[in-house]
Amino acid sequence: MRRLFAIILVCALIASVGVGCKAKTGVVNLGGIFPMTGASATFGTSSKNGVVMAVEEFNAAGGATVDGVKTTINYVNEDDQGAPEVGASAAQKLINQDKVIGIIGAVMSKVTLAAAPIAQAAGVPEISPTSTNAAVTLVGDYIFRACFIDPFQGTVMANYAYNTLGVKTAAVLYDNANDYPKGLAENFKKSFEALGGTIVAYEAFTDEATTVDYKPQLTNIKAANPAFLYLPNYYGGAALQLKQAREMGLNVPAGGGDGWDSPELVAIGGAAVEGGVFSNHFSKDDSSPAVQSFVAAYTAKFGAAPDALAALAYDAAGLFLDAFKNAGSIKGSDIRDAMMNTSFVGISGAYMFDANRNPIKSAVIIKIENGQQTYLTTVNP
Ligand code: PHE
To answer: Could you read off the pLDDT of 267-326 as tens digits, one per residue?
Structure first.
């Protein structure tokens, strides 16, 4: 008994100077802000899965070494409900209460735009996997993203419509209460007109989370007789808009942006979304070995193939954790500097940030065929 006590005492003494019986280990919190509930909840589920997978791999590989102490990550996930004010409080909570070393999130540009000023003011690095609105990273030098931006995405679809589909006129219907559709609508319009096309109708509504009837705007659009319908909204709104358009006999080809990426697009829209094309960040059909091994591991773990949200959240978290490891520090400015100098290779491509903390990334174009997402082509910037 006495001997046992003596051994414990010696161990405690040695541990207190940081060597011996068992090496000291540390745990730090990493935060995530995603829409786990509400009209775009599939975005949250996929994104959280991607982060969880990256964190588990990071911890299993030994974590980071901070001041000689092996340090792993505890992941704290917050639900922003797709609402900017909820995302802002989530950022406050993660920073003030959980003392996170960084934030992965949000998905929706409007939510990231509300949370980012809080992270910036606190000097906590934040990386959004998928917020594409151009203004997001302009909030400040602690704000990064893992995806291309909407001026590129709008051009990709304008080119595809004008040159590949050969349409010379288009109509746009977008949510003017949301920075992402608003920006993407403008970017598409500008590019389509620059190519020589005409926007024959440019219609808006306010908030797809509460709008159920798009017939007034669709009536104006039908009267303008467009050859293409561009719907840069999230999947729930886009599916309903297409359903109502088809009911009204507006049967022209339709397209959208990354916000269409959800299994719910087809579940809600059915035959109305068939043939639709949209720009996206990632396709599970990419034959590269890195993508295919990620798809296999993710599917085995979560029971469904990863979408772009899962892939980019995995990359965003992987990039952040790689920078944390390289910095060997929990200080926000050290991690920020390491992120700025990253050469991280994710499954959606190699990362290098420009002066505004935007990476240069390719887009893919996906078509809904027989109710499935089919990869069409990759467009380089
Ligand atoms: N790009 C969208 C935004 O900025 C979010 C999104 C990305 C949605 C990818 C789906 C897929 O709001």
So the answer is: 999 999 999 999 999 999 999 999 999 999 999 999 999 999 999 999 999 999 999 999
Domains within the chain, CATH numbers bracketed:
6-148+288-350 (3.40.50.2300), 150-280+365-379 (3.40.50.2300)
Angstrom distance (rounded) from CA 119 to CA 126: 7
Q: Which of 34, 131, 184 to mutate to test the pocket of ligand 1 (most atoms within 8 A of CB)?
A: 131
Q: For a substitution probing ligand 1, which of 47, 112, 180 has the most ligand atoms within 8 Å of its CB?
A: 180
| Ligand 1 centroid to residue 7 C-alpha, Å | 57
For ligand 1, the distance from its centroid to the CA atom of residue 259, given in whole angstroms, is 5
CA-CA distance, 95 to 124, in Å (whole number)? 8
Q: What whole-number distance in Å separates Cα of residue 364 and Cα of residue 122?
A: 36
